[in-house]
């Protein structure tokens, strides 16, 4: 009997070892199942369907789809309006994100000086990014109103005169950049300031002992150590600015004369106002490809992991 007991124990262990992977697979499927179903239903399926629609044209009268191949993309790339809108999107993304990174980093360095009352001011500073972009657009539209807006009233009273913030095509896009920067500079500030608080104090103390001034410590110590946080904030904001829609919808509605229209707003107008769903899908897929290429190239040029370990 003593000889059969070890054999039975080995057989039980063997059965348990075979059953354990199966049980783990079931647990993994049970835990990941809802997330997988969600991704398939609300991410993969819309992407596949919209890709197919970008090669089709919708007839509103017949309520039917017609295969046009690359017709939507051919029309897209030969349209002067599309290139104007793409230029607006590029200006909004590059100018806006650059402004936000510079101002956000400067604010983080400023509030790192342990000033009196800085906690209260920091709390007020992040309020704009808590607002919905549509609300921000409507609020600034009221402030910039040419008849009763506060900003134009100040300019008139000081002798500058009225400015067509939202009616002048040469000014409206830069107004959009300013409003976008006003709302999202606090986001960059929070990211950079959090990184700044986590930097080792010994490095800066050693720099001070060596006789380095505040500007030298900032230039050669602080900023290089902040680069990973700045890159993260810049990439995040660039992707978000590239697909800006709600701020445009609330502030300018794409006007005047498409001067502030972005690719997202152009896709919205063609899809839900002009019912050109195939053309709108083509615009959306051009945006996806451009965003993928842009982020890949940026991470090839600036690798946050290498900077982190440098």
UniProtKB/TrEMBL annotation:
Residues covered by the ABC transmembrane type-1 domain:
86-298
Q: Which SUPFAM superfamilies match?
A: MetI-like (SSF161098)
Keywords (alphabetical) are: Cell membrane, Membrane, Sugar transport, Transmembrane, Transmembrane helix, Transport
Locate the transmembrane regions by residue number.
28-48, 90-111, 123-143, 171-194, 220-239, 282-302
The subcellular localization recorded is: Cell membrane
Cite a single Pfam family from the UniProt record. BPD_transp_1
Mention any one GO cellular component term assigned to this protein in its UniProt record. Answer: plasma membrane
Which InterPro entries would you find in this protein's record?
MetI-like (IPR000515), MetI-like_sf (IPR035906)
Regarding the membrane, this protein is recorded as:
Multi-pass membrane protein
Predominant place of localization: membrane
Q: Name one GO biological process term.
A: transmembrane transport
Give coiled-coil spans as residue ranges: none
Q: Which family does it belong to?
A: Belongs to the binding-protein-dependent transport system permease family.
What is the protein's given name?
Answer: ABC-type sugar transport system permease component
């Amino acid at each position: 009997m003593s000889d059969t007991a070890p054999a039975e124990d080995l057989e039980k262990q063997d059965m348990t070892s075979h059953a354990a992977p199966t049980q783990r697979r079931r647990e993994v499927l049970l835990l990941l199942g809802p997330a997988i179903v969600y991704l398939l239903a609300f991410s993969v399926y819309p992407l596949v369907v919209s890709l197919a629609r970008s090669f089709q044209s919708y007839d509103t009268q017949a309520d039917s789809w017609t295969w046009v191949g690359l017709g939507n993309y051919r029309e897209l790339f030969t349209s002067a309006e599309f290139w104007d809108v793409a230029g607006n999107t590029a200006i909004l993304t590059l100018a806006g994100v650059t402004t936000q990174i510079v101002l956000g980093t400067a604010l983080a360095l400023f509030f790192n000086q342990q000033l009196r009352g800085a906690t209260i001011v920091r709390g007020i500073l992040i309020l704009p990014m808590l607002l919905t972009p549509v609300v921000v657009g409507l609020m600034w539209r009221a402030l910039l109103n040419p008849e009763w807006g506060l900003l134009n009233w100040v300019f008139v009273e000081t002798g500058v005169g009225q400015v067509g913030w939202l009616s002048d095509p040469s000014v409206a896009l830069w107004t959009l950049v300013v409003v976008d920067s006003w709302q999202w500079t606090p986001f960059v500030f929070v990211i950079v300031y959090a990184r700044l608080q986590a930097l080792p104090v010994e490095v800066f103390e050693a720099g001070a002992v060596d006789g380095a001034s505040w500007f030298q410590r900032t230039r050669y110590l602080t900023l290089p150590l902040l680069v990973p946080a700045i890159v993260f904030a810049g990439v995040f904001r660039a992707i978000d600015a590239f697909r800006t829609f709600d701020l445009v919808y609330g502030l300018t509605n794409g006007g005047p004369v498409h001067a502030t229209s972005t690719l997202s707003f152009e896709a919205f107008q063609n899809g839900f106002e002009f019912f050109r769903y195939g053309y709108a899908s083509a615009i959306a897929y051009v945006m996806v490809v451009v965003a993928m290429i842009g982020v890949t190239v940026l991470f090839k040029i600036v690798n946050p992991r290498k900077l982190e370990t440098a």
